[in-house]
């Protein structure tokens, strides 16, 4: 999910270590959907097996409203329900309306050949209780790769309620669809988007991008992130407009920057000086050195909103000396890069004004490519200027 100023885009990436040992939820889904299935041929060749071709034709006729059970996705040789929920978000935002995640994982042996998996899935499906009135399709996917290599193959199978194969697909870095999705975003969301891209292409369905902004999986991920509802986000808009009007006189307290697993009071002093120089209003680090702590969390959305809520709770202590309070969380890693920049501004009454996330999938942070604390601080100034102009 990407949240900034008075706008919230509910696009989220699940925690999963295909690309890095401490992955983050980041915004990318909208852009991936925009360049996905529409670029692939929408009338794929029918399977050689006539019976399977009939089943695929039935899937096409059922459309994106066809009921699907998503089985926990195999990542790093084990089933992952959270990644299946991310796949549910991808499919939901593409236009599918009847999706569930299987309660019982389908577990494949580590040495199992992919050619044997469809039959094993069929056997698993046939053991599960099912409502005779709801003839669900079942989708099982595997994302192959390691933190070192990134995704190396994405493959999935769809069977009908009786376990008969409807379609099977495998994609590698040599395939165009892989390059646009998992290759562009080497994390579970990119892999999930590839599955959605191929499913819609093979079923000959039309993608309805962002068609369920408040669907089951969108709500699930919003709840997991701790993000507020649309009404709370909309309430930030007039506060932002007020801050823009008051920039030249607004008093701002800048709390010590959260960086490298600790705090940096000197960074807060530099950011305060940069605020005054850029916007004109008086800004300073707190005289008492008061710090704001944010718990480590692999869900970047939750970390962002923990920052915002923590700032709101601390803001009232500065009511006598300021109008607004600013805090930043800088994800400076050990590889000479800044993975994320989180910015929160609230009134001294605790009302959020700006809650903004930039990370390695955000165009502005990619363009700036900060590598040091000083460069991250300069980026904070540039980002605030963009939000407050």
Report, as a whole number of angstroms, the end-to-end distance. 23 Å
Helical stretch count? 13
Mean pLDDT: 85
Q: Label the structural class.
A: alpha/beta
H/E order of the elements? EEHHEEEHEHEEEHHHHHEEEHEHEEEHH
Number of domains: 2
Secondary structure tally: strands: 16
Give a structural overview.
The chain is built from 13 helices and 16 strands. By secondary structure, it is of the alpha/beta class. Strands 3, 4, 5, 6, 7, 8 and 9 form a seven-stranded mixed sheet that branches. Strands 10, 11, 12, 13, 14, 15 and 16 form a seven-stranded mixed sheet that branches. Strand 4 (73-75) and strand 5 form a beta hairpin. It has two domains: 12-225, no CATH class; 230-388, Rossmann fold. Helix 3 (81-94) packs across helix 6 (188-203) and helix 10 runs parallel beside helix 13.
């Amino acid at each position: 999910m990407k949240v900034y100023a008075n706008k919230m885009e509910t696009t989220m990436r699940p925690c999963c270590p295909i690309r890095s040992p401490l992955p983050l939820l980041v915004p990318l889904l909208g852009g991936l959907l925009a360049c996905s299935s529409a670029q692939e041929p929408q009338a794929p060749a029918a399977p050689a097996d006539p019976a399977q071709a009939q089943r695929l034709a039935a899937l096409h006729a059922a459309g994106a409203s066809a009921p699907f059970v998503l089985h926990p996705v195999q990542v790093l040789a084990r089933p992952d329900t959270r990644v299946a929920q991310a796949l549910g978000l991808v499919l939901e935002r593409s236009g599918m309306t009847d999706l569930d995640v299987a309660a019982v994982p389908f577990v494949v042996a580590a040495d199992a050949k992919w050619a044997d998996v469809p039959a094993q899935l069929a056997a698993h499906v046939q053991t599960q209780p099912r409502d005779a009135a709801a003839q669900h399709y079942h989708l099982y996917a595997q994302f192959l790769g390691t933190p070192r290599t990134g995704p190396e193959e994405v493959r999935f199978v769809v069977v009908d309620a009786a376990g008969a194969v409807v379609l099977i697909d495998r994609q590698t870095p040599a395939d165009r669809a892989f390059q646009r999705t998992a290759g562009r975003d080497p994390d579970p969301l990119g892999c999930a988007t590839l599955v959605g891209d191929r499913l819609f292409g093979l079923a000959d369905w039309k993608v309805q991008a962002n068609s369920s902004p408040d669907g089951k999986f969108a709500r699930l991920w919003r709840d997991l992130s701790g993000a507020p509802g649309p009404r709370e986000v909309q309430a930030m808009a007039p506060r932002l407009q007020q801050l823009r009007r008051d920039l030249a006189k607004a008093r701002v307290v800048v709390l010590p920057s959260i960086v490298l697993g600790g705090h940096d009071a000197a960074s807060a002093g530099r950011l305060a000086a940069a605020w005054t120089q850029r916007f004109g209003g008086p800004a300073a680090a707190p005289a008492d050195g008061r710090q704001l702590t944010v718990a480590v969390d692999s869900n970047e959305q939750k970390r962002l909103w923990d920052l915002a809520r923590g700032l709101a709770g601390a803001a009232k202590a500065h009511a006598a000396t300021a109008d607004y309070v600013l805090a930043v969380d800088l994800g400076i890693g050990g590889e000479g890069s800044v993975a994320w920049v989180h910015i929160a501004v609230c009134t001294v009454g605790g009302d959020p004004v700006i809650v903004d996330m930039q990370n390695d999938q955000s165009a502005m942070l990619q363009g700036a490519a900060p590598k040091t604390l000083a460069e991250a601080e300069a980026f904070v100034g540039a980002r605030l200027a963009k939000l407050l102009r």
